[in-house]
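Because discrete structure vocabularies remain unfamiliar, it helps to consider an illustrative case, giving the amino acid sequence and backbone structure tokens:
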Amino acid sequence: QVRLVESGGGLVQSGGSLRISCLASRNIFSFNSMGWYRQPPGKQRDLLASITSGGSTNYADSVKGRFTISRDNIKNMVYLQMNSLKPEDTAVYYCTAVDRRGDYWGQGTQVTVSS
């Protein structure tokens, strides 16, 4: 069973930065890709960023240039560095991982950006 545990969420002022983390219960190199989604209150869950086992990254237009996804294969961690945060970035952020058996989700971490 795969477990993904997010951490690092919290309250930050508009324009600030925050880094959230995701710890996987197994070697993340075994996943085809990992990513971050977010779900604002009352809205759908959307993909923000993804990173493949080879290190290729993709970003949603809404966060391109502000957010950076990275991974540490030794620590089994995936990170999302978020800069120039805006109130509309307020959401629950979820870590996800995909392998040949399916996809896995963390429980989410709340990020709140105050204006």
